[in-house]
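Why predict the complex rather than its parts? Because the way molecules touch one another can change local conformation, and only a joint prediction can capture that. The input here totals 800 residues.
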Amino acid sequence: MRELLVGPFKSFIRVSAQVRKELVQVRRRPGAFFSLVLGPFLIMAVFGLGYTGVHRPLETVIVVPDDLNLPRDTAFYSTIVGPAVHVREVTTNAGPARDALAANVLDLVLVAPADAAQTFRSGRQARIQIYLNEVDPVATAYADFLASVVSQRVNQEIIKQAVISGQTYAVPATGGQVFQIPPEIVAQPTVAEVINIAPSTPTVVSFAAPAAFALMLQHMAVTLTALSFVRERLSGTMELFRVSPINSLELVLGKYLGLGLVSAVIAIITSLLLVFGLGVPLLGSPWLVAAVIALVVFASLGIGLLISVVADSERQAVQLALLLLLASVFFSGFVLPINEFREGVQYLSYSLPVTHGIRLLQDLMLRGDTTAWWEMTALAAIGLVLLVLTVLALRRTLRSA
Amino acid sequence: MTAPNPPVEPTPPVGQTQPIEQAPPVLQTPTVQARIGQSAQLAQAALVPPPHQRSWRERLFRRRPDTGTRWAIGLERVSKKFGDVVGVEDVSFAVPEGAIVGVIGPSGAGKTTTIRLMTGALRPDVGLVRVLGDDPRRFSRRTREKIGYMPQLFVLYPDLTVRENVEFMAALFGIPPWRRGRRVAEVLDLVDLTQARGRRASALSGGMQRRLELACALVHQPRLLVLDEPTAGIDPLLRKRIWQELDRLSKSGVTVIVTTQYVSEAEYCDSVVLISEGNLVAFATPQDLRKQALGGEVIEVVTSAPFDASALPPIEGVVSVRQQGPNDLLFVATDAGAATPRVNDAIERAGGAVDSSREYRPTFDEVFSVLVTAHAQRGRGEAGQPGPGLMPHQLARPR
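Output of the joint prediction:
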């Protein structure tokens, strides 16, 4: 009976010694601790204060050939193309404008068709040429979109001008009645009205904050742990463990609890700063948010500890941690939606704790609830699998020579 | 100028890496057997784990006599290579409980490899290792609780203070908090680190770090202490104190196996494992190592007038005699105490006058130098056996 109690009691002593040692080591390196706490918050703060979410207007020159009977006034065109485009100049010579575009001084050059009237009369569409000099596919898509908007607005303006010149442009309706219809309505008969039923309409920063927080939680936990066993193996401490009564499960539990406590403190401080400092909404239950944070940390500690067991040097551990960060940025839904990836890659996405963390934190913080409760289970399962793998890998390390 | 004494029987080659059953004759003398138990049966008994830990093969085929001796460590024909480099080769020895055994050898000789084979950090390519009855690769938790290990390099936590490091190690061995404080204070006092208990390990000198590691190895009062160069970088006074403590522990039944760079520390050991180039050169008591190196015990005689040693007749118990100078003679005897009166008497009868005669005790540096050189010569197939013919040329002139 006594033996039954002594064994677990000694295990408790060994695990608590590990926990205490980890906490003391973190306390002895306050710089590292504060960089872990303040680093993520400062990044979020700079992002929040510095990011406007508004695209810079594209610098544009409009080329109107001499023989074309169109206005030369920049204000006229600015009204047509809207605020997304800044009309710097209206010119008749396309050459210098294209040179400026090639030199990246301009973003767009719009060339009005020289033979627009003739082309129209012959029953064909006149072509407005829009030149850009862009390799970024996102910027190219944006320019394409703007070009279509510009084209649409020019068409509207043409129709509007035609209606004005016709004065009594009529649309026959049922019953043979004739209605006086304003030219701008003829040119643009419908407009869209957007109604958002989401419980909050966060700013870009507030929307990005939960996702960035989840990513930082994972990276922090992995960074905290990725070097732990590597250092102990390289310094020779593992050799002491091999001869001492501590086993791999006790070693791993000590790390989980010690570094988990540190992560919890950092997560609490960072989340308070996000909510009360940056004003990120917290519509859901704080306890549920805390549970998600705990699960993300649990699973992420597992990744870090597994890295620290399998890596053969500190350099390799750091490289693996950075690779994980890179994979998380690409595949977690932080930048690109997961459903835009092929199915096989989506499995990779869902094997990352941060993927589930982003979804759950965004839902709970910005919507107040989630429909993806299975992701909590997935996080717990990932954490447990990693715990088992780490214990087995460490046992192998302790036995191997 | 060698005296015409009958040559002694050639000393058997020392340190041959034979299996324990065929241990070198020098290890089979009653004295050595009694002190270090190098007989085949005794050594084999050391390798037999307790019945509940034996495999079915061992239970079926490995019946060993119960010698009554309790063994802490046994190595049987153990070899370990690192690629093409020999770590240790065909090493066999056994350590009884309560003994202090020194593992001594030149740098790179295989001392640490031997230690790491005992701790399970290395797996032998060939051979069998047993520590406290267990295979080190599968130490039970109970066995590990009985072992205190101090590695060669500093492996503790530089961020923790001296006291925190020792407390951590005490907790690893399951010492409860209410007993930890007193025990930690005791070991810190033992290694003279009480004043430095609040300093971080990273701020300690190399010698202090060694002492801290020693404190960590001792804190849980192990039954077997495995110490890899515990006195390296420590001042002579503290070294002496540490050896006194090891002696005290040994007397209380703790087995101590210790490697050291300081050959003179062999004097503190009950027996010494001398390793060179991965081979066991010798395993004997310090006293017997001297005999192996010198071919016997050495008596130094100074005569009041020049004396020619060739005038001496054969003397009972004297193996050989060497003329060191006109007035200076060295006699190699099987027993210096018994032979000295007979030597004095023989010189007087031959017309000489003895001014002084005393047993000459060469330093261990000299002894090991002789043994290692002889071993190397044998390895190269050169002539030269340890014993009377080798000794006088290689030893420094007695002071």
